[in-house]
From TrEMBL:
Coiled coil, from the record: none
Protein name: Lipase
Database matches in InterPro entries: AB_hydrolase_fold, Lipase_secreted
Membrane spanning residue stretches: 20-42, 48-71, 83-101, 107-127, 139-158, 164-182, 203-227
Pfam families: LIP
Superkingdom per UniProt: Bacteria
Record organism: Leucobacter iarius
Keyword Transmembrane helix attributed: yes
PANTHER family named in the record: LIPASE 5 (PTHR34853:SF1), PTHR34853
Alphabetic keyword roster: Membrane, Transmembrane, Transmembrane helix
Length: 605
């Protein structure tokens, strides 16, 4: 006997699902919402985040199966859908279970799996929407679109920050959880009140789905804006090596006027000159010269500047920037040039602008480039420069300035270093790598070191010995400059590297030895000023204080100044108390005044 549609069997199934589906729907909605909130507001490590995300996705898939089963049981025969309806929730269950089980997959793989799962679910949900009642079609398509866009963001940017992945997934999970709870409450109220699923309720449902889609679009646009790099010009013919490169370092090969970014009351040039690489062979470097518009008669005082971190790829040369004189203590530099008649010479460092790979934080290479830039500037026909010089540097440039003072007498005896000012210098490279290894900025610095030192110290084979999951982030960061918008993108990509870039065994081995070898140690032949902001999150005050104490104990005379409340960049900002002090300290050293030495009573911090 054929059972009639809508007969006793079907009615019993319907009643069963009517009893089971609402509690399941509420429980899964609450679980999904809780998971979204936990991901958004709890400070989780990668493994905990992975497990929660995986369990939530799998539970959501089970919930969708329960909802689909309940809807199918209560539907008329002609409205029942085929087995394809299980594909979307099945994909979520499979991906979620895989993520939860393999919580050690790392951030890039996690982003790819989550992104793929969301995209597949969104596509299948979109297809399913066309088979549902017209009243639910638009809301289903909007929800599917939100899922696809969030998945696309995660899949397209597999090395986005873990915070971005967490928040994006959290928003999506929270939305789905709220949707499940909202539908359960509305349906229960409507059933008790004898009200059918009215157009007004459908409008609310559609508005909620539209809001999720709008949020997903904003998320995608925001990530694209944050990660968009600067449009920096590629080095042109000016930076090309001549057919026969002179072997003598410090020879001026080319110069051309600079007009963009030049302070009022000054004039500037871009220069190309010879220098010496780490193995002693000739190399090529570029740089800039900033001089007063109307110089005084006689030899102008010379300021040799080592610039701070701008990146390690060729387009990151300061001479290629639209603001070539904005690095470090730019306000003090403008004052020295425009008001006091000095000439400032800044090396790009070999490999920035010119061909090759910059020797990032390799002390001797930086110092040779700085000294050779000053040699080359003295060959400019438009200027008459003193053989005496004061050296400045901030951050990486502070490291370079200390090394310049250390080797100047031996490498460039025709130049006399009168004094050296190092602002927040990277003085202890090993300590810096150890303290900052888990911070976003520290990971950016480590990425630059990995890319640079893999070339300059090939015996380390650094890029082959990074922590798991670090290589994609290191590769992308190494192509970004650390100025303007690129700095934001580099820091964001630094935060997405799941672990420290260099494993501890590498830091305690050959890499650590080379970091110590490239940390500047006295004696320094000229008076030394070291300035440090006490709120510096990158070059930590306690690290600087330890290095200064070691130098004082070794007999180095120096003037150590600390600035409460100032961070890494604020230390050399226009409003910093160091700015006028640096100018006056430099003028005093040039005029032969006795240099302060506070080694006997170093400031705290």
């Amino acid at each position: 006997m054929t059972r009639r549609p809508g007969g006793p069997r079907r009615r019993s199934i319907t009643r069963a699902f009517e009893r089971i589906a609402p509690p399941v729907r509420v429980a899964l909605g609450a679980l999904t919402l809780t998971a979204g909130v936990a991901l958004a507001f709890t400070d989780l490590d990668l493994f905990a985040f992975t497990r929660i995300a995986g369990i939530a996705l799998a539970a959501l898939g089970l919930g969708l199966i329960a909802l689909e089963a309940g809807a199918s049981a209560s539907a008329a025969p002609r409205e029942r859908r085929g087995p394809w309806r299980w594909l979307a929730p099945g994909a979520l269950i499979a991906v979620g279970a895989g993520i939860a089980i393999r919580s050690d997959i790392g951030a890039p793989a996690l982003a790819a799996l989550i992104g793929l799962g969301l995209m597949v679910h969104g596509v299948l949900s979109a297809v399913q929407s066309f088979r549902t009642h017209e009243s639910r079609r638009l809301a289903g398509l909007l929800s599917a679109g939100a899922s696809i866009i969030i998945g696309f963001v995660s899949l397209t940017w597999p090395v986005l920050t873990l915070d971005f992945i967490r928040i994006g997934t959290a928003v999506w999970l929270a939305f789905v959880g709220l949707r499940l709870l909202f539908e359960s409450a509305i349906r229960r109220w409507a059933r008790r009140s004898g009200i059918t699923w009215s157009p007004r309720l459908r409008v609310r449902h559609t508005l909620a789905a539209g809001g999720a889609l709008a949020l997903a679009v904003l998320l995608a646009m925001g990530s694209g804006w944050l990660l968009r790099s600067d449009k920096r010009p590629a080095p042109g013919n000016f930076y090309a090596a001549p057919a026969n490169l002179p072997g003598e370092p410090g020879k001026l090969l080319r110069s051309e006027p600079l007009t963009e970014g030049v302070p009022q009351g000054a004039r500037a040039w871009r220069i190309l000159y010879t220098s010496t690489s780490g193995d002693g062979s000739p190399t090529l470097a570029s740089g800039t010269v900033l001089a007063p518009l109307h110089p005084a008669a006689g030899d102008a005082p010379l300021l040799s500047i080592a610039h701070g971190t701008t990146g390690v790829s060729r387009p990151c040369a300061p001479s290629l920037s639209s603001s070539p004189f904005a690095d470090g203590a730019s306000t003090s530099l403008t004052s020295m040039v425009v008001q006091h008649g000095w000439v400032g010479v800044t090396s790009d460092y070999a490999g920035l602008g010119t061909e090759g790979q910059e020797a990032y934080l390799v002390g001797q290479d930086e110092a040779r480039n700085v000294l050779d830039a000053s040699r080359a500037a003295r060959e400019l026909g438009e200027l008459q420069l003193s053989h005496r010089t004061v050296v400045w540097g901030h951050s990486q440039g502070g490291h370079g300035a200390l090394w310049t003072a250390k080797i100047a007498a031996e490498y460039a005896p025709e130049l006399t270093v009168v004094a050296t000012a190092a602002m927040a210098p990277a003085s202890d490279l090993y300590g810096l790598a150890e303290l900052d290894k888990k911070d976003a900025a520290g990971k950016v610095i480590s990425s630059y070191i990995a890319a640079s030192w893999d070339t300059h110290y090939p015996e380390l084979n650094l890029l082959a010995h990074l922590t798991p999951g670090s290589a994609p982030g290191v590769d992308r960061i190494s192509q970004l400059c650390f100025t303007d918008r690129d700095a934001i993108a580099a820091l964001l990509r630094g935060t997405q590297i799941p672990n420290q870039v260099f494993p501890d065994k590498l830091l305690s081995g050959e890499l650590g030895a080379l970091l110590r070898e490239n940390s500047p140690e006295g004696p320094f032949d000229a008076p030394l000023l070291v300035a440090q902001g006490l709120a510096d999150p990158l070059v930590r005050p306690q690290l600087q204080r330890g290095w200064v104490g070691d130098q004082c104990a070794a007999g180095v005379a120096l003037d150590y100044r600390t600035y409460p409340g100032l961070g890494h960049m604020e230390l050399v900002g226009p409003k910093s108390p160091l700015t006028p002090q640096l100018v006056q300290w430099t003028l005093d050293r040039w005029n032969g005044k006795q240099a302060p030495n506070n080694c006997a009573s170093l400031p705290a911090g």
